[in-house]
Structures are given as structure tokens and as C-alpha cells.
Amino acid sequence: xxxxxxxxxxxxxxxxxxxxxxxxxxxxxxxxxxxxxxxxxxxxxxxxxxxxxxxxxxxxxxxxxxxxxxxxxxxxxxxxxxxxxxxxxxxxxxxxxxxxxxxxxxxxxxxxxxxxxxxxxxxxxxxxxxxxxxxxxxxxxxxxxxxxxxxxxxxxxxxxxxxxxxxxxxxxxxxxxxxxxxxxxxxxxxxxxxxxxxxxxxxxxxxxxxxxxxxxxxxxxxxxxxxxxxxxxxxxxxxxxxxxxxxxxxxxxxxxxxxxxxxxxxxxxxxxxxxxxxxxxxxxxxxxxxxxxxxxxxxxxxxxxxxxxxxxxxxxxxxxxxxxxxxxxxxxxxxxxxxxxxxxxxxxxxxxxxxxxxxxxxxxxxxxxxxxxxxxxxxxxxxxxxxxxxxxxxxxxxxxxxxxxxxxxxxxxxxxxxxxxxxxxxxxxxxxxxxxxxxxxxxxxxxxxxxxxxxxxxxxxxxxxxxxxxxxxxxxxxxxxxxxxxxxxxxxxxxxxxxxxxxxxxxxxxxxxxxxxxxxxxxxxxxxxxxxxxx
Length: 535
Ligand SMILES: Cc1cc2nc3c(=O)[nH]c(=O)nc-3n(C[C@H](O)[C@H](O)[C@H](O)COP(=O)(O)OP(=O)(O)OC[C@H]3O[C@@H](n4cnc5c(N)ncnc54)[C@H](O)[C@@H]3O)c2cc1C
Ligand SMILES: N[C@@H](Cc1ccccc1)C(=O)O
Known about the structure:
The chain is of the alpha+beta class. It contains 17 helices and 26 strands.
């Protein structure tokens, strides 16, 4: 897939495509060539592609006329309908839930959910407060941001790492949290000290020339804020107890520099690599007002009349010359006849839908296993984390069962605010999922009080918790695809089976990201369109 290039203008992209240096449309033309499309048709389609509006570096070239039924109105299903719609297809989206978006779920005041185990909740959040229960952050390189641009969904920075957020490892004996900046100063400082001293004593004589060693030591002195004797002695990077201000107030440095042994015993260093990850490095972004602005905009662009909600598909039949999809809506059974189908439900759900697509499809679907994650939104009457702790956005990392605590990246300095009190996975998520919403709140608040103090309890206004394994028609946060999506086992899903195509983040290398859902949808519609144009 062509990765969007930040800051690169359309003309530069078009130029690179022309000279064959990028994927995107250029790669698609190559594919069409391989499919035996006539060069003149290719040229016409290329011209049209360049005149058509950009869509995350993607536009189907040429018009196709066929009827396509899309099962599932999550990002993959909606993106399929959106892209096919632009190319002239007649699409119908069948979505089992009462809203589109699938795992892209934003909870606001008045929203209700009923879990598979019967747990019912209604959010009591005040106006303007929201919780992204599923996706919440977007790296710059993901195609999701291109769709935001094309669909007119405004975005703002999502703070994924914050030097002033906390780290709290209770199992390592920490009794109070440590700021990221302090933890980093100490860990980088001691690591630099030991490497600098070892280098100075000749430990790297085999690996490095004398000049290289001098350069390394220079780097380490700066990186770890080392003294002349290559010792780590702390400094302003750790933070202050009294911050610098007017003349007479130079600031009081945070005292009590812990020993190297104590620093490593806290285990704080384990969180630093998170921000090095390709998909988690700052800057990150979020749609203004909630992540569901994306499916809302997609649904509007597709046309609400093409999207049927509350329509649960119960059977998919490939007839050879077409596809019949059976669904229930409002207690009645209906069918849709189409030329093609794109099945864009999660694999664990699709595996339960009767079909005649063969045992290869079924065993591939069953090999992919659902994974667990959960979140709780805690609305507070005041933004005490900004007022008292000076934390504006970002994530506090813990080894408690709440795992990650998120400060909101919107509404700064406002009156109220909404924290994510836990974002946890696997057993931790399931253990919260087994509790009632009130018990979840109690347990999450007790964990937060250990880090932030009593205001975590006393300022609380209301909460709403979401457990993805208990969510009807989804039953998973994301999926484990053993051996990766290109294993031969998944061939019947990566290629069309008869007239049925498959799409979803689980058929990508970025499972658990909307980018994967978009990318797989684009792959499916490209293949479908090429087939229609070639027929
Ligand atoms: C907790 C959490 C955090 C995440 N964080 C991020 C993040 O920060 N950034 C990011 O980009 N992504 C994130 N993701 C991943 C993102 O949500 C998914 O990658 C994406 O939404 C998947 O889209 P999809 O269309 O493939 O699948 P889904 O969203 O699962 O859509 C499938 C659709 O099929 C419907 N369906 C199921 N059965 C039927 C049926 N029988 N008939 C009709 N319809 C049916 C479902 O109701 C659903 O709407 C997160 C997900 C979770 C759960
Ligand atoms: N994309 C999800 C799930 C995920 C978590 C951590 C790493 C990779 C993926 C998120 O960012 O929250």
C-alpha cells in the first residue's frame, strides 16, 4: 500500500507515480497490466485517476457497474462501499448493530449498551465529554488520516507520551508515582554513565577506534547529562519541587537522586520503547469530537439509504452467477441479491454465519482467535490532573490491573474532563468484564487513588465501561492471526471465494488499527473492480 507522505504535495506524488516510484495508482496500473487490460484503457484510466479527487492516494480507475452487498458496516465495510460507490457500483451495506462504525465506538451522554451477558449501561457524561471506547489514536503515516482529510473530518493532536505523566510500578515497591521525565533522566543517566565509563576503561577497544570512543563518550555525556568524571548526578531534566520563576526564585531541583540499583529495580525503563514503535510514536492524532466522526462521515458519503442498520446477516450463499445474502431486520427475514459480496465482519462472527463457501474458508476463519481489551471512562467534575498535577494529556503507565490511564487530549483547562481509568487487555480486561459496572468503577478508582490521591475518587461524576469480548456482533477487540495474514491457510480469505470477497483489519499487517481495515477494503475493492472491468 502506498503510504501517505506527510507534506508531499499532490503534484509531487503524481510525479513520483508517473515515474513509477510509488505504489498507489502506479501499482494499480501495473496490476491492471498484469490482468491483461489494454494499454489504451490503462492510459484513459490513468488520466481519470489523476483528475479524480485524492482519497488517501487511492482511486479506482474507470467505471464499474455491478451490485455489491457488503456485510458489516465497520470501517472495512464502509470504506468498501465508499470506494466502490465512487466508481459507480450499486452498494448495499448490511449492519447488524443499530449504528455503523463497528469497533469504532464513541460513547457520549445518553448512549446505551447491552452486553452479551445482559449488562446494561447508559452513559451519563455531560455535554461535550466523550469516550473513545475503541480506536482513539492515529499515527501520521496511517491512511486513516487521509480519509479524515478527504471526508472533511477535522483532526487534532492526541498526546500519546507526556514527560509529565506518571509511571507507577507497585509490584516493584514504588509507593508513589514517578514522572516520565524523572524516570527517563535517571535511566538514561545511569545507562550513559556505565557505558561511558566502560568505554573509557577500554571495554570497547575491540569494537571501536579511539576516535569513535571519544565520539561515543561525547554523545553519552550529553544524552545522560553526565558530569566531567562521567558520573550521573541528576539535573533539571529530572524536574523541580519549586519551578524556576522570577529573579530570586531559581527553582529547587527534585532531590534524592536514587542509586542506579534502585532505579533499575523500579522497572520504569520498560515503558520507554513504546514511543519508539512505528505505530505509536508522536505525533499522533484524533478526530475532533470523537473517533466516530470517521464512520459518520463515511456513512453520509455513501448515502444513508444504502446502509441498513439493525440488519443481521444470517446466511451467505454464492450462487455461481451471483450472491444471495439473507438477513433479519425488525424480526423479519429479508434477502439481498447481488453480483458480489464483501464480507466485512470480524472472523469470529463470520465463522458462525452459515455459508456455502467451503471448508477452507471456514477453517481459516476458525484459526483466527478473538482477543480481549476493555476501557472505562471516568468523568470528573474538575480537571484536577491539570490543576494539581500539571498533566495535560498523555498516558500514565502502571503495572496495576488497570494498565494504562489516559488523560484527555481535548478540552484542556475546561471545567470538566474525562479520563480513561483503564485500558487493559487479556486477563486484566476479562477480570473487569466479569464485574458489574459499579464494581468496575470501584476497582478502577481504588487503583487510581494510589497514583493520584483522593481526588480520583471525590471528584468523580460518573463512569461508563466497555468490554469488547462482551459486545454483540463483535465479541473481540482485535484478533490473533497465527502465522500472519499471508499464510497459505488464509488464501481463501485473501482471494475471492467465488463471488465473495473478505475485508477487515484482521486480514492486514496492522490488525487492531483502522488503517488495516481501510487497507484490506482497498485491496478487496481493487480486485473486485479489476474483475468487473475485465469481464
Ligand atoms: C479497544 C480498542 C482500541 C483500538 N485502538 C485503535 C486506535 O487507537 N487506532 C486505530 O486506528 N484503531 C484502533 N483499534 C482498531 C479498530 O477499531 C479496528 O481496526 C477497526 O475499527 C476494525 O474495522 P473493521 O471494519 O475491520 O471491523 P469491525 O469494526 O469489527 O466491523 C465489523 C462490523 O460487522 C458487523 N457485523 C458483525 N456481524 C454481522 C452480521 N451477522 N450481519 C451484519 N453485520 C455484522 C459488526 O457489527 C461491525 O459493525 C482499536 C480497537 C479496539 C477494540
Ligand atoms: N491500535 C490499538 C491497539 C494496540 C495497542 C498497542 C499496540 C498496538 C496496537 C491502540 O493503539 O490502542
